[in-house]
Amino acid sequence: MSDPRTTARLVQPFPSGEIGIVWEDGHESIWPGSALRRACACARCQDEVTGRRLLRPSDVPDAVRALEIVPVGRYGIAIRWSDLHDTGIYPFQRLRALCPCGCAGKEASR
Ligand SMILES: [Zn+2]
Ligand SMILES: [Zn+2]
Question: 55 CA to middle of ligand 2, Å?
Fold first, then answer.
């Protein structure tokens, strides 16, 4: 059984550079591309052992856009960015936790 809150019904990159997800529970999340790019948790952006951030927010241009979004099974998405970074995988569970409206924090019942 998949959790409707962390199951994506639709993943949509906008020409403006924003990335939107409509979730199975009907909720919508929209991030500026730069927000998701800065949250990348790949081995080049975050130390795998300590979790220390290697990527500084200033390393990412504000205008960064998703060039391509590739599904990774039902688990998440991989994003190829206009700054040529393409090693990050974004699990849906993490994306929902990153929702800019803060809904993940309000549903702290997990
Ligand atoms: Zn990365
Ligand atoms: Zn939300």
Answer: 25
Ligand 1 centroid, distance to 44 Cα (angstroms): 5
Q: Return the CATH number at 36.
A: 3.30.2020.30
pTM (two decimals): 0.90
Average of per-residue pLDDT across 88-96: 96
Note the residue count of the chain. 110
CB 36 within 8 A of CB 79: yes
Ligand of minimum distance to the alpha carbon of 37: 1
Total of domains in the chain: 1
Q: What angle do CA 27, 29, 33 make, to 5 degrees?
A: 165
Q: What is the 81 CA–ligand 2 centroid distance (Å)?
A: 23
42-53 pLDDT, tens digit each: 999 999 999 999
- Residue 110 inside a domain? The answer is no
